[in-house]
Each structure stands twice: as C-alpha cells, then as structure tokens.
Write a structure and sequence with these properties.
Immunoglobulin-like, Jelly Rolls, 11-stranded mixed β-sheet, 10-stranded mixed β-sheet
C-alpha cells in the first residue's frame, strides 16, 4: 500500500514537473486592438481584442480566457479592472473578442491584458497592451479652426502641371506646469509633417492616408508627453499637396476631382501634473509662410527643393518669424472627421543602386537593379545655386536613354538646388516615384554609387508570407509580385505608381486582394478601402470603378464594383472579420438591388463595361485584342459574376443577421443560372458561348454548370489551354482570377503548373525572361503601345498567388472556420514541383509547409499555430507507409478521394511517406 502511494506521488510529481516545464514554453503574445498594436485614437467604442498563443509543445488548445481593461497602467498592474472584467469565459476564440465594458469616452486611455486557460494549464499574457479612443464627435472639433493659405505664390501655378509650394506653419506655446500627459490630434491636408521643438513627431511619411476629402478626412494621433516641457515650446508643421491639390489641378474638371489648397486642423490636449488641463488649437495666431525650400511637390511631376531657402530653426522657439504672415481661416474640406485605423506609410526598406553610367549628353543613368516605389536620397557637393536633377523611369530605350513614353504626361522629376555648404544630403518629402532607372544631371564628374540610396515607401504593414519552390521561374514571379504589391500600397491599393494615373481601380483587386493577403497583413488597409467604396456610393446605389472617386467613373458594371463584395469576403475568409461585413452589408445590398432593378433583363445581367480586360492580343504591338474569337461576351461575364456575388451575399446575410434577404438571393441565383445556361451553354459541343477559356472557367468556378456536363465543359476548357493556346495564358483580368485554382480543383494541376512556369509569350514567366522585376500591366508589356504598358501593375496576377499558397504549399483556411482556425493542407504533389517551402503568419500564428519529393517518397515539415488545427492530405491510401514524428499513424485517419487524411492539432510535425502516388 505504501509502495503504491509512493509510486502515485512520484507520478503526480512527475506530471506536475512536466506541466510546469511545458508552461515555460507557452506564452500569450501579440495583443492587438482592432488588429493594431497599441493604437492611439481609434473611433470604435466597442473595439475588438485579439492575441496569439505560442508554444513549443504540440496540441495546445485554449479553453477559456479572461480580459481585464483598466483606465490606467497602475490599475491594470493592480488587477483593478475599472473599465471591464470579462470574467472567465469558456471559449476557445482568441481573435476579435468584442469589448463589453463601460462606455469608452472621448480620448479615453485603456490598458488591458488577458489570462488564458488551456489544456496545458493557465497562462498570463506577456506584459500588457494599450489603446486610446479618439475624438468621437464632430462637435468636439468645432472650436478648432481650419487654417491655411488659399492663394498661390509667385512661382506657383494652378494648371494641368500644377506647381504649389509647401506651407510652413508654426506656433509658440507656453506650458504653465510640469506635464503628466499630452496628445496631438492632427488633420493635415493633403500631407503633413509635424514637429515639436525641432524634432519630427513619428516615423510616418506621406501622411495621412488619402480619402475623398469631401466625404471623410482622417486624423492621426500622437502621444507627445515626452516631447513637451514646461515653459516655451514650438509646434511646427509642413503641409504638402498630396491628393488634395496636385491631382492635375483644374484639368478635366468633369473627370478629376480637386479639393483646394492645403489646410490643417490640430488639437493638443495637455494634462498637467497638478490635474489641470489645457487644449491648444489651430487658430489665426499661427504663423505661416509659403517661401520655404519646398518650391513644388506634385505626386505626378516630382518635388523641387531649393536648399538656399532653408530656414534654420524655423520649428524651434529661437526663430525670427517677423516676415511670416498670420495663418488664415479657411473652409473645412467637407468630409466627416475619422480616426485613421490603418497604419501610415513609412520608409520600409532601402535599395542600393547597382550601376551608374555616363551618357553622351553628359548626364548619368543610375540603375537600382529593381523596379521600386519611393524616392532617391542623394549626396552632393557644389556651389550655391548648382542644381541636381533626377528624372525617373522604369526602363531604358535601346540607346540606353530613359524610356518615358509610358509615363504619359507625368514629369517624374525631382530638382535639388544646392546651398553650397559642404556635403549636402537630401530626399523629398511629399511625393513618390515608380522607377528602376534615374537620369541624373548636374554633377560635374561621375558621382560614386554610394551618393545615392533608394528609399522604399509603402504602408507600414507586416510581410506575412514567404514562398520558395523547385522552379526558378515561379520563384522570380513571386519576387516580382512581392515588389509590385508593396509598391502599390499607398493608404489604398493603387493600380500603378509611375504614370499620371495611380488610381485605386476596383477591378485590379477583385481576387488580387486575396492573393496579396498571404504576402502582407493587409486587413486594415482593405477595411479602410471598403469604407472608401461605401462613401463613393451614389444616392441611388451606384458604385464607381475607382474609389475613392478621384476620377468620376460611374459607368455601372458588375465585375469592377463587385470587388466591394469580394474584398469583404477575403477579409472574412482570411482574417475572420465579421464586423466589416455587418458594417458594409447595407451598402452592398443597395448596390446589388440597384444593378438588379436597372440592368437585369430576362434574368441576365445586361451590362458590362470592360470585358475580360487585357486578354493577350494577337499582335505584340496591340494593347487590346480585336479578334472576336479571343473576346468573351460581356453579358456572360456580368451574369456569371452577379450570380457568384449572390452566393456571397447569401453568406453575408447570415453574418449580418439579415436572414430575410436569403430567399431573394436564392431565387434570383436560381433564375440567373437557368437563363445563363439556356443562352450560353452549347450542349452539343459542351462549352459556353464562343468557347474562350474565360467563358468556360467562370461557370465551372462558380458552380453553374449542370452536374452531368461539368467534366465535358472542363475538357473543352483544357483543350483550349493545352492544344489551341499551346499551354499558354489566353485569359484577361477576369478569367485569370479563377484559372489556376479551377484547373487544379478539376485534376489538372500539372497544366496550371505549366502556365505558372512558362517562359514564352504570353505568360508571367515571359515577363521574367524579358527582365521584369515587377508584374506588367499587359502580357506584352515590352512591345505594346506605350500609352498603356505600365511595368508595375498587379491586376494580371489573378489567382496565381492564391494557387501558390493553397494548392502548391497547402496553406488554406477552411471556409467553415475562417481565419485559419482550421487549416486545409492539401498540396498538389503531382503538379510538377519537387519541393515547396512556404510560410504564412496568420492571425492565429505562424503556419509552415515545407515539402520535398524524391521519386516515390515524401518528406513534409508542418507547423500549425497554437489553438488551431489542420486537415492534412497525403498522396497515399496506405497508413502503414506514413510516419508522423517517427511514429506510425494512429487509427484516427480517413481516406478521401485516394488520399490519406490526418487531423493534426497545433504543433510541429515531420511527416514521411513512402510509395506515394506519382
């Protein structure tokens, strides 16, 4: 009896030791509010809180959590939850937990932490997190006046090629006592830089993010407690033009919106150590000048800077501003004031140039080695008044000079005038360029390469995905996509960064946003963009093709505005964001109804505008194909797309508690499907319309093909790809969005792989073979008419990146459990690749898939994040040929369509399989 007790005691002690040892490897990290780390000034009074579990042990599941939120860090550390104590909640969710405590007021600070219970024990979060509420109502800004200068200076012009100097503003303030806390709320239109006592506040650039300023404007919030001091302080701002002024001012006013001259509203809230408070606001006591060194800043044309006009110390208290004028009260932009809930842009990297060569005319061509987006920093020495001019372009002509025809009328030129005081270092503030090559003039001798550094600028969002495979062409395509996507994130997704366009076209991101979400944490960017789309909606329900609607393109169609719905679906699928659907659902429904009532004729959508945009043309010099055999019927495109959107809206209706709408969506979808097949399906030849790949892939991908004809229609499509087009792409923007996944899902992953790895025209690999380092706008972007051949677009990626991750790497979120709560790991091992090594930082944590085939054996390393699980598909039906972490497979597996399926909990696994299917 004593022996038994002793053994039991030893066993319990051993288990406790093992549990304690396991707990040491488990942590609760990455606490986020509204998917932001420690956000200042949010305008959500019931914010969502998320966290991640990290562990070196397998099979970690959350069973419960407790969130406490306090108004001060001291209260939180003392576990005094004076704002909210959720209590212990029996729930395994760790993403988007909605705050349900005391009402959060204007400028409320909140500090929070979480305790998590798991099947391995209780874990407390590592440290705490913080957020603050912004200015929630318009009335709280009413005593803050907008200031600016609504005039041009002598060197300025309001024209097609607008020139406008930067506005410099300053305000000396006297703080009466030691400071406990201070926050600045700033709206700087179009772009701003903020300084206190000579120091720039924040590391953001090109802030704030662009909106339609007549609909909404964004304010930024900064905690400046430690930048201020008792006594005299100086507030300073520089206002650049951004989209507010420089969008080809007063040129084609019927098409292009303009908003006026730069302006600003600012509030500084101060709490003193003695408990008293003070608010300092913009008014007409601020001093202003337009006679500073930034002579012009135009997004299309570049920035001009005269260092001789620098005003040393202008943003400090010891500066004489007698020549400055008082700022003037100006009209507000008109849009509602909103907290910016997505990060600003930042310098996200640097690119060193690879060569510099002299030209016959005495200039120099700098090659960055990579098509990039941002600007160039330079070093120079010279006499006062000497000028360095930099002209930016994406490629060169045969004679080595810049190729600029594709820039249209964008001047893309920066000019720096030296002050003549030793080595001078300069970079612009309020513009960006898309470029690989720079023509530089003004140097008397060939400058060294280290005189220049490329600054990569895009939204301050995390890179979440990596991908490498056995195919070098696919790897370079991935790299090109990475550079193209990041360069076109500018507070909104734009189409291109170089020519006189740079617009947030909806059709470019219909499915593209989904693929991008594997490479970048783009959740807040696209949530903001959905607001832009919503604000652009007409009173009767119409949506534009460009949003914010800087261009007035309201032509009505389905495939472009439908992006409003597909991007919301991506946010739900990839990030488990239900709130964005609830928020946008009324406007989405309004648009669906608008299209139905105005353009549904005999149960078919009788409206299309762009067709299958950018189908590979029959001649390398053409922009658009003129061959009817290559073009897909517009009614087919719009009807099929509208049918698919109805299916998504049915899902959204359930999420938005609009169940009464479901019957209508079902009925309308049934009618459209019937009419669609009656008109477009050729039951004798088993294809749709004129048998283009796009005409067949859409009904196959959307589930519109009668069950008994699916395989036959698919074979018609395969014949077009494999035989007629000789294994090459023949789809445009619309068809390419579904091509790769549909081929793979119907068993022809090998053909999808051929398309992905092709090097001849038309293909993504053709771009690589012809020197591309980003994705082109056209399949023939090296030969087509220069009016439309941007070398940095992403719209032709279609579903390629989704296919990379979901079908080649096997990293896919189960649609039944969005946000990668359960992962479907089902690579197509038979497509043609011999290895793939990919990773994705999901909202639950890091997912890895690293597999290698060698003849009939498979080695596969998998990482599944804590509190998640995975369905793992192996190319065998014989469990005895499989080992997981060197152990035989247990009985808990199933066979599904000639694949062995394992359900694995979180953790890291080494899978070895022999005698796999070839």
């Amino acid at each position: 009896m004593k022996k038994t007790f002793l053994y039991t005691f030893i066993l319990i002690a051993s288990l406790c030791f093992s549990l304690a040892k396991a707990q040491n490897k488990i942590s609760v990290t990455n606490l986020r509010c509204e998917m932001l780390n420690d956000p200042e000034g949010i305008d959500v009074v019931q914010p969502r809180m998320s966290w991640q579990l990290k562990s070196d042990v397998n099979d970690l599941k959350q069973t419960a959590f407790q969130i406490i939120v306090a108004s001060t860090l001291e209260n939180l550390n003392a576990n005094k939850a004076d704002l909210w104590d959720s209590g212990k909640v029996e729930n395994n969710e760790s993403v988007n937990i909605i705050y349900n405590g005391k009402r959060l007021e204007n400028r409320q600070n909140a500090f929070w932490k979480v305790t998590v219970w798991t099947n391995k024990g209780e874990i407390k979060s590592n440290g705490s997190a913080h957020f603050s509420i912004g200015v929630l109502t318009y009335s709280d800004w009413k005593s803050t006046r907008w200031i600016g200068y609504d005039k041009v200076s002598p060197l300025d012009s309001v024209s097609q090629f607008a020139r406008l100097s930067a506005r410099y503003l300053r305000k000396e303030i006297n703080l009466k006592a030691p400071i406990k806390s201070a926050k600045i709320y700033i709206i700087g239109m179009g772009l701003y830089e903020l300084y206190i006592n000579g120091n720039k506040i924040g590391n953001q650039v090109l802030a704030p993010v662009a909106t339609d300023y007549t609909k909404n404007v964004k304010y930024n919030v900064f905690d400046v407690t430690f930048q201020l001091k008792e006594g005299k302080n100086m507030l300073g701002t520089i206002l650049g033009n951004g989209r507010f002024f420089a969008m080809r001012q007063d040129y084609k006013p019927y098409k292009i919106k303009s908003f006026g001259f730069p302006k600003m509203a600012l509030q500084l809230f101060i709490e003193y150590a003695d408990g008293s408070k003070e608010v300092i606001r913009t008014d007409d006591t601020w001093k202003l000048t337009t006679d500073g060194p930034i002579l012009s800043n135009n997004e299309y044309d570049g920035e001009e800077y005269d260092a001789r006009k620098e005003m040393k110390g202008w943003n400090t208290t010891n500066f004489d501003d007698k020549t400055w004028v008082n700022a003037r009260y100006v009209q507000e932009p008109g849009g509602f004031y909103e907290a910016q809930m997505t990060p600003n842009m930042k310098i996200m990297g640097e690119v060193k140039p690879v060569s510099i060569k002299a030209t016959p005319k005495g200039t120099y061509i700098l090659d960055m080695g990579q098509n990039m987006v941002g600007w160039l920093q330079l070093k120079a020495k010279g006499k006062s008044g000497d000028q360095i001019t930099m002209k930016f372009a994406e490629s060169l002509q045969a004679d080595g000079s810049l190729y600029i025809a594709n820039l249209r009328d964008a001047k893309t030129t920066d000019v720096y005038t030296l002050k003549g005081e030793g080595e001078e270092i300069w970079e612009p503030r309020f513009i960006f360029h898309g470029f690989r090559f720079v023509e530089i003039s003004g140097y008397t001798t060939k400058p060294p390469l280290d005189n220049f550094m490329g600054k990569v600028v895009y939204d301050d969002i995390k890179t979440t995905g990596t991908f490498e495979s056995s195919d070098a062409t696919m790897n370079q395509i991935f790299k090109n996509a990475y550079w193209g996507i990041r360069g076109n994130y500018k507070g909104m997704p734009i189409d291109c960064p170089q020519r006189n366009e740079r617009q947030p076209w909806l059709g470019d991101r219909t499915t593209g946003a989904y693929g991008e979400s594997f490479l970048f944490n783009n959740q807040t960017l696209y949530a903001k963009w959905l607001d832009d789309i919503k604000y652009s909606q007409t009173q009767d329900g119409g949506l534009p093709d460009v949003a914010p609607a800087f261009w007035r393109y309201y032509g009505d169609n389905v495939t472009w505005p439908g992006t409003y719905i597909t991007v919301a679906d991506m946010l739900y699928q990839q990030f488990d964001d239900k709130e964005v659907i609830k928020k946008q659902y009324p406007s989405m429904k309004k648009w669906m109804t608008y299209m139905e009532e105005n353009y549904l004729v005999n149960d078919l959508m009788d409206k299309d505008k762009y067709g299958d945009w950018c189908v590979p043309p029959e001649s390398l010099e053409l922009i658009r194909s003129k061959d009817p055999a290559r073009l897909t019927d517009g009614q087919l495109l719009s009807s099929a797309f509208y049918y698919q959107l109805l299916r998504i809206m049915k899902k959204f209706a359930k999420i938005a508690n609009a169940d009464a709408d479901i019957a209508h969506y079902d009925d309308l979808a049934t009618r459209i499907k019937k009419a669609f097949n009656a008109k477009f399906l050729n039951t004798e030849k088993n294809y749709y319309a004129n048998n283009t790949v796009t005409a067949n892939v859409l009904p196959l991908a959307f589930g519109m093909v009668p069950e008994n004809l699916k395989e036959k229609v698919f074979q018609s499509m395969v014949h077009e790809v494999e035989v007629t087009k000789k294994g090459h792409i023949s789809t445009g923007v619309i068809g390419t969005q579904f091509l790769m996944r549909t081929l793979t899902n119907f068993g022809r992953g090998d053909l999808a792989y051929k398309l992905a790895s092709n090097k001849t025209y038309p293909s993504w690999g053709y771009m690589v073979e012809n020197g591309a380092t980003t994705i082109w706008e056209l399949w023939n972007g090296n030969t087509a008419d220069p009016t439309m051949n941007s070398q940095n677009h992403v719209m032709l990626l279609g579903d390629l990146l989704i296919w990379y991750y979901e079908n080649m790497a096997g990293i896919k979120s189960n649609p039944e459990t969005p946000g990668f709560k359960q992962i479907i790991m089902k690579p197509d091992f038979e497509a043609g690749l011999t290895y793939v090594n990919a990773s994705y930082e999901s909202i639950h944590g890091l997912i890895k898939s690293d597999w290698k085939k060698n003849k009939n054996t498979l080695q596969w390393k998998i990482t599944i994040p804590a509190n998640s699980s995975a369905m793992v598909y192996l190319p065998t039906t014989n469990a005895s040929d499989v080992k997981v972490n060197n152990e035989k497979v247990a009985k808990s597996y199933k066979i599904e369509k000639n694949k062995l399926v394992l359900e694995l909990p979180s953790g890291s696994y080494q899978i070895n399989a022999n005698n796999i299917k070839q």
